[in-house]
Fold this protein.
Amino acid sequence: MKKLMTCFTVASLLALSACQTSPTGRTQLLLVSDNDMDKMGAASFTDLKAKSKLSTDKAAINYIRCISTPLLKAANENPAAWEIQVFEDDSPNAFALPGRKIGVHTGMIKTAQNPEQLAAVIGHEIGHVQARHGAERVSLNMASQTAQQVVAVAVDGTEYAGATMAAIGVGAQYGMILPYSRTHESEADYVGLKIMARAGFDPQQSVELWRNMAKSGGGKSPEFMSTHPSDNTRIKALTKQMGEANTIYRQAKAQGLHPNCRKP
Ligand SMILES: [Zn+2]
């Protein structure tokens, strides 16, 4: 209820009706259109590709395609509309951008011990895109800047100006934006868990992946960094959701869904 109020309050402040619902039923403030976000995401991805080294390893590229195609189908997406690239980078990481772009580091392919663990990573990234986390991040930044400007005008010249601005600055940084980012990570985990199960990948391997990441120190890499829930929090949440995921997984297997991808 509190989040709902915040969203509608901010939206009415900006004279916009921009509250939508995420795949898990969470109210989101979205001030940017999908079309604009897709353009921004595509431009960033092009930039990133120009500045980074893309892998030309056919086995790695085929492995990623073998895993991502059934995942995208299970997520009701058209695999042909997505671009998934392998980046030459030893850090165990992956990332997603609006506009259906996903990057997987060669280090992530190495760290994920089997196709199921990599499916957990790619499912998580599909989750970020489907849940419009990029647009929400941009919207929150816009809203927090606007709120600061509105209050700056209101309190400007009063003796409280300094203290009020400091309080709002701190609130924007720690109160509003960071918890949302942690929420994004948990939401992407949950959406990804169901996608991997629906595609016929054993969902239990998502937990193994996080154990594995904690061991290798991969949790300190950028996408999974600072704002992410700790590996333990993550494992606890996934374990709680495993009953639901296993039911989906059993149904997928009964339908003959069992992707056969071999780690190169
Ligand atoms: Zn993430």
The pocket of zinc ion is lined by residues 124, 128, 185, 188, 223 (CB under 6 Å). The longest strand covers residues 83-87. The first helix runs from residue 2 to 13.
